[in-house]
Amino acid sequence: MQRNAAKLPDTPLWVGVNFWSRTGGPLMWRDYRPDVIDEELTVMRDHGITLTRSFFYWPDFMPAENTLDERLLAHFDDFLDRHRALGMTTIPTFIVGHMSGQNWDPAWRDGRDIFSDASFVAQQEWYVRELTARWKGHPAVAGWLLTNEIPIYAHWQSRGIGTVDAAAVTAWAKTLIDAIRSTGATQPVSVGDGAWGVEVTGADNGFRVRDLTPLIDFHGPHVYRMETDQVRQHLGAAFICELLDIGGKPVIMEEFGLTSDYVSEENAAHYYRQLLHNTLLAGATGWIAWNNTDYDDLWNQEPYSHHPFEMHFGLTDDRGRPKEQLREVHRFTKVLERVDAARLLRPDTDVAIVVSSFLENRYPFTQPEDAASVFAHTRQAYVAAREADLPVGVAREADGLPDDCALYLLPSAKQLTAPGWRHLVARAEAGATVYASYFTGEHGVQRGPWWPKLDETFGVTKRLRYGLTDPIVDDELHMVFQRDFGTIRAGEDLVFPVAGTENSRSYLPVDPAGAEVIATDAHGRPALLSHARGAGRMILCTYPIEHMAAVTPRVNPEPTHRLYAALAAEAGVTPGVTVDDPRVLTGRMDHEDGRVFVWFVSQHDEPLTVTPVLAPDAGTLRALDGAAEAPLTAVTLPPFGVTVAELA
Fold first, then answer.
1. Residue 586 Cα to chain centre, angstroms
2. What is the pLDDT of residue 158?
3. Closest of 83, 187, 88 to residue 131, by C-alpha
4. How far apart are CA 304 and CA 308, in angstroms?
5. H helices within 287-443, ranges in order?
6. What is residue 521's three-state secondary structure?
7. What is the dihedral of CA 453, 454, 455, 459, to 10 degrees?
8. Do residues 428 and 290 both lie within one domain?
9. Backbone angles phi, psi at 432, to 5 degrees
10. Alpha helix stretches (DSSP H) within 551-646
11. Long-range contacts of 108-116, Cβ-Cβ distance < 8 Å, separation of 24 or more
12. How far is 281 from 284, CA to CA, in rounded Å?
């Protein structure tokens, strides 16, 4: 299975920052100070940042219909020239009606719908075309973005979910992108919506990634997730990048960051380090942090007056002094340079996490909670697979499941289509290992597994009763192995957290009917079974272990990584480099010239040392800096640290 790491053609990797000057934030163009701009840009450039994302504050740049403010246009002329003088580029963003917790309308909007009012769309089209025509040839322009988080601007009360018409959005986006292209501009274009579409979040805000993909040149996720688990937090943006493997387009981390009001500077740097390296390993090929500076002098200006934490997302403080997170970005750029990241590829994989099409397809008479469950469970499976050092890929049922994997993971899935099940059984019969774990759903509507021919598929007789669940009454699930299974020895007891709603905290009672019982629970009931199908097998877990972990705070690492590692061993796809500590994640990137690089990413808040275990034909690990000729037999990592080595 191929994994996405597409790059913008003929474009250096973007390492950038979202930019508002500390002189005014969104109102910077009214009080434009070239000397401060120079100072701010120079600090960024000196720390490896060579690109900004800039913003036309719409009410100022277009004060009336068919009218542009010439004074502000001249300021942007100067802004571009200063980028060029410093060897930097920028991505202008046209329609800035939302920013940092506030929406602003141009005075002349008069309540018209953004996407479907013909006269209002015509004004946007004119605006975009005029600005593009003015600057399309400037060497400091690296790309174009239509908007900033416009689903929130469209309807802030719902963030666009269920209130915005997808067909109108796609037509609107095509109109504005056509306006850019009509000028002869050739730079990459995207929407700037945050990539929060139903294909990623399970909630439809009208900005459907599949519909927009043919129009854009890159996906641009905005990720500010807050989690209840450290590892889920560190891998959250990476999982979003995996989900955006749609249409083969590059994934640019268009916005990410944090406010210093929420976190210590040391922990801010840890978060930046984790996000940057983990998204690189997940296929991202550009990063634009939010944002360049703090805004303490703007305490009485909206939006900062009512969202004061928004003043402190900066990589520098309000006087331009670098924070530790800026130094972390700088260190990341040094790694990118050392491994020649523009020519790195993600190796193909034999391990796929199956993403049910119920994440994105609105099948009749299904519930919104079904999509939310798919997201939560596949993300938790991704965490466990990374803890097992598996080079996992994300396979969407909606795209048709790949035929070339040896191991398919279907985590706590209530729903898959009948054709999806047929395909997985066919893959098992062709020699693959297919794993699925039971899940009834979190709500009471059609509660139960939508699995056709469950008994025949898994070689069991189910003991379910109509309309009732079989509740898990224990506080922990003990999965005791009855024989050696991959990397798990007979007699081992894996202990899983138990959690869920009155509906989902349920197990599947079965009797084997051809399947072999691999592990039992504390009551002697089958917990894990293997059923031969053709040249392969179907593996059934009778407990929703990914679901229970996904709804448990501070749970990772939990034992699912042990099970996934064992499944990989049984399927013959043991990773080339692994460590025996799930708190350290490994990842591999291949260079076009044949070099191989291995990442070690710690999830531990204290220093630790791990011993890499290499497959017999994997090669020899050596330090990336080349200072030592001896093989690298141990890796010592600081708290939440990252080490990159070369596999020679």
1. 17
2. 81
3. 187
4. 5
5. 324-339, 368-387, 418-429
6. coil
7. 120
8. no
9. -85, 165
10. 560-571
11. 108/64, 108/65, 113/168, 114/150, 114/153, 114/154, 114/172, 115/154, 115/164, 115/165, 115/168, 115/169, 115/171, 115/172, 115/206, 116/165, 116/168, 116/172
12. 7
Tell me: do 355 and 252 sit in the same domain: no
Q: In a 3-state reduction of DSSP, which class is residue 568?
A: helix
CB 497 within 8 A of CB 479: no
Q: Do 554 and 582 fall within a single domain?
A: no
Three-class SS state of 511 = strand
Cα(186)–Cα(139) distance, integer angstroms: 12
Q: Are residues 549 and 643 in the same domain?
A: no
In the three-class reduction of DSSP (H, G, I as helix; E, B as strand; rest coil), residue 603 is classed as coil
The total domain count for the chain is 3
- Looking at residue 583, which CATH number applies to its domain? 2.60.40.1180
Q: Which of 322, 344, 366 is the last residue of a domain?
A: 344
76, HSE (Cβ side, Cα atoms, 13 Å):
26
Residues 6+ apart with CB under 8 A from 332: 15, 48, 272, 273, 276, 277, 287
Structural domain of 321: 14-344
Sign of CA dihedral 481, 485, 486, 489: positive
Domain shared by 482 and 626, yes or no: no
Domain end: 344, 367, 394, which one?
A: 344
Q: What is the pLDDT of residue 85?
A: 98
Report CA torsion sign: 279, 220, 410, 507. Answer: positive
Q: Are both 326 and 467 inside the same structural domain?
A: no
Strand partners, 648: none
The answer as to whether 7 is a domain residue is no
Nearest by Cα to 576 from 645, 647, 625, 633: 647
Cβ atoms 481, 518 nearer than 8 A: yes
Let me know whether 540 and 623 are in one domain.
no
Task: Name beta bridge partners: 548.
Answer: none
Are residues 488 and 531 part of one domain?
yes
10-residue averages of pLDDT along the chain (648 residues) = 95 97 95 97 98 97 98 98 98 94 94 96 98 98 97 86 93 98 98 96 95 98 96 98 97 98 97 98 98 96 94 96 98 97 97 98 92 97 98 96 97 97 98 98 94 97 96 98 98 98 98 98 98 98 98 98 98 95 97 97 97 91 76 95 95
The answer to whether residue 8 is domain-embedded is no
Q: Give the CATH number of the domain where residue 417 resides.
A: 3.40.50.880
DSSP reduced 3-state for 160: coil
Local structure of residue 83 (DSSP, 8 states): H
The CATH number for 90's domain is 3.20.20.80
DSSP string of 623-643, one letter each residue: ETT----S----EEE-TT-EE
Q: Is residue 1 part of a domain?
A: no
CA atoms within 13 A on the CB side of 607: 3
| Dist CA 191 CA 212 (whole Å) | 8
Residues 477, 506: contact at Cβ < 8 Å? no
Residue with tokens 């909606």: 398
Q: Report the C-alpha gap between 279 and 431 in whole angstroms.
A: 32
Task: Look at residue 626 in the predicted model and tell me its pLDDT.
Answer: 62
293 within some domain: yes
